[in-house]
Specification:
Blueprint (H helix, E strand, L loop, with lengths): L4 E5 L4 E5 L5 E4 L16 H17 L5 E6 L4 E6 L6 H16 L3 H7 L22 E5 L5 E8 L3 H12 L4
Antiparallel strand pairs: 1-2, 2-3, 4-5, 4-7, 6-7
Length: 172
């Protein structure tokens, strides 16, 4: 017997109807019970500005960086590998950006929570591999909406974070 799950709008409420079964379970339509999801995606122009600001800071620090920007869905939006930057840092920069977006916090903060005995110990093994040391920062609009994240790798973790923060500051 084939069963299909349908969500059907009704005048007063939504009802979940399972074909082939006699009963239906109501779904709440109370606006207070449903959290508001506010999303916005980073534009290519914004991502380019983030990359440019990060590259300028890396040049100021005299270091070569791999810089990744992901959108609100943690998909790669823009990437820059400065001449001479380490090949191994390409993947690390992308994972730092994804990690910062997945958890909407700087990767260094996640790192503090993921130490042995910490509440997030071993989290770096989830989601196809995360990076829990500094260099990933969420990208936010002026009103605090997260639109993506930047990940930077290629130097010390202090420099990586400084360059990522400079890139994030380019969002207006």
């Amino acid at each position: 017997m084939r069963r299909t799950l349908l969500v059907v709008p009704a005048a007063a409420a939504l009802a979940v109807v399972t074909m082939g079964l006699a009963s239906a379970q109501p779904v709440s339509t109370n606006p207070a019970a449903t959290p508001t999801l506010r999303t916005m995606d980073i534009s290519l122009a914004q991502a380019d500005a983030v990359i440019a600001a990060a590259r300028a800071k890396a040049a100021e620090l005299n270091t070569k960086m791999d810089i990744a920007v992901v959108d609100a869905g943690a998909n790669l939006k823009a990437f820059s590998r400065m001449d001479g930057a380490w090949l191994g840092s390409i993947d690390i920069s992308m994972k730092k950006a994804r990690t910062a977006r997945f958890f909407d916090m700087a990767t260094g903060e996640i790192g503090k929570l993921s130490q042995p005995g910490g509440p997030l110990y071993n989290i770096e093994h989830s989601n196809g591999g995360l990076i829990t040391f500094p260099g990933g920062v969420p990208l936010k609009t002026a009103d605090g909406t997260i639109i993506g994240a930047i990940g930077v790798s290629g130097s010390t973790v202090e420099n990586d974070h400084t360059v990522a923060a400079a890139g994030a500051a380019a969002i207006k």
